[in-house]
Amino acid sequence: MISSCRAAELRNDRSGRPDEQFRSPAVPQLSPTFSTTMPLTIQRCASCGTELPERDARTSCPACGGLLALVHAPPAEQGAALRARFDARLRDGAGLVADAAGAARASGVWRFRELIMPGATDADIVSQPEGNTPLFHRPVVAAWAGVDALLLKHDGFNPTGSFKDRGMTVALTQARRAGARAVACASTGNTSAALAAYASLAGIAGLVLVPAPKSGAQQVALGKLAQTLAYGARTLLVRGDFDDCLRLVREGAEQLGVYLVNSINPYRIEGQKSVALEILQQLAWDAPDWIVLPAGNLGNTSAVGAALRDAVRLGLIARAPRIASIQAAGAAPFASAYRENFATQHRVKAETVATAIKIGDPASWDRATAVIREFDGVVTDVSDAEILEAKAAIDAAGIGCEPASAASVAGVRRLAREGVIRPGERVAAILTGHVLKDPGVLLDYHRADHAAPLVNAPIEVDATLDALARVMDAAAARA
Ligand code: F0G
Predict the structure, then answer these.
(1) Through-space distance between the first and last CA atoms of the chain, rounded to whole angstroms
(2) pLDDT at position 478, please?
(3) CA distance 391 to 409
(4) % of residues, the chain, pLDDT over 70
(5) Mean per-residue pLDDT for 326-353?
(6) Helices (H), strands (E): how many in the chain?
(7) Which residue, by CA, sits nearest to atom 5 of ligand 1?
(8) pLDDT confidence of residue 1
(9) What is the position in ligand 1's atom list of the atom closest to the CA of 297?
(10) Band of the pLDDT at 152, cuts 50, 70, 90?
């Protein structure tokens, strides 16, 4: 299936090689309501400015290898009128999700379609739906972090349990528009689960490369691996780390003509913008002071920045929040570079309990650097112990998250203690993945012999009422 997929199958016009397509671009499809001759969207290299038509399936610049960004025609409405349109769609979105149009209407991604993929028609859209995740306030977590006005944007409430669904709905929609027969990614687990689910929905073959277990230890959290297999993607366990997987899939995708849907793909970034747009809408377009998020490959940092850029430019908000990207201390090349004002690009051999962000050579480096500079951002790192303590606090609040997600709240505590986040500031921290993604780390934490805060080890008892009563008494005394 995958092996028979060649570059030719990715072409728009199904004639000639992809390079020829670059030389004589296919005319982009225009919405019937768009009246000028300008295309609604083009792809532009962020490094050298080379432009590609919207449906070109390459995911890096053919001239210089740089990362591509999407440039959309400005929407007809701006400011209050655009806010009103998005708010009306939010109200009208509830209801039956019987077909693609219903899913697109209910989706927290496609609600913002003018800023994401203005040329998409309902028939193009591959949506579960996704997005519309809750923005919680949990006083116990706020107290743990030392920030009263701490909000938790829980993207673990997406259909496959992570924020990756936001990018994947757009990437698979684009894969369908570009005529792709197969999609591929390298992953630390969540992207692969999302790819598998959306590829299945689109009827397109999916291929994922994840790091193989090393010395008996899983490198990908079990929930994510299980999902990827369940949804039906071909799953390769590569003897190497995530950085090796990404290098391999980039080479392979080009040669095999498979559409690459890692976050270097600009359509992934467009979809992931929606998490920030949703936060702004949930706060009635009164922006928080900070958006804080975990950072690995830096796609999400880039996406949040791109969304804020749009929101300010189009008058959706009066002022932009600052961005804080949080890395795990054992996988923190971006935090190290930030301390040196991004003088050099760092690479490390990554090691952390938060396997989702165990990445030593982030792909979206340049995009994310620009975002941190533009939004008065900060980058810091937190230890595995801080991550696990933050996670235990979030879990015990009854909502839970996976280890990488907890890095954002651990980062909030650190930045508040350092005085970077000031008293009274309103902070939205993104929880990127669901608590069940990584049962291995959870069960290991809640061992009877583990001396850590909030350990809740299971208790084995005889099947007698006496034994039960003893446990009940002890639990009541603890509460
Ligand atoms: N949080 C979670 C739960 C993730 O899965 C990831 C990335 C991140 C944060 C970091 O986002 O890479 O855009 O900076 N996971 C990717 C994957 C690498 O393959 O699932 P980023």
Answers:
(1) 56
(2) 74
(3) 8
(4) 92
(5) 98
(6) 17, 13
(7) 356
(8) 34
(9) 12
(10) very high
CA distance 267 to 261: 8
Distance from chain centroid for Cα 385: 24
Amino acid letter, residue 359: I
Give the number of other Cβ atoms within 10 Å of residue 455's Cβ: 13
The label of the residue with tokens 């949990």 reads: 138
Which atom from ligand 1 is nearest to the alpha carbon of 325? 14
C-alpha 187 – ligand 1 centre gap (Å): 8
220 or 104, which is more confident? 220
The three-state secondary structure class of 79 is helix
Kindly give the distance from the C-alpha atom of residue 94 to the centroid of ligand 1, in angstroms, as a whole number.
29
Please say whether the dihedral angle defined by the alpha carbons of residues 461, 466, 469 and 474, taken in this order, is positive or negative: negative
User: Reduced to 3 states, what is the DSSP secondary structure of residue 65?
Assistant: coil
Cα separation, 410 vs 464, whole angstroms: 42
Distance CA 386, CA 384 (A): 5
Q: What is the pLDDT of residue 283?
A: 98
CA-to-CA distance for 111 and 87, rounded, in angstroms?
A: 9
Determine the distance separating the centroid of ligand 1 and the alpha carbon of 163, expressed in angstroms: 8
Give every CB contact of residue 168 below 8 A, 6+ residues apart in sequence: 191, 194, 195, 197, 198, 261, 268, 271
Provide the 3-class DSSP secondary structure of residue 85: helix
Q: Which position has the token pair 């728009």? A: 12
pLDDT tens readout for residues 232-241:
999 999 999 9
Instruction: Identify the pLDDT of residue 37.
Output: 61
Question: 313 CB contacts (<8 Å, ≥6 apart)?
Answer: none
Q: At 211, which helix (H) or strand (E)?
A: strand 205-211
What does the pLDDT read at residue 98?
77
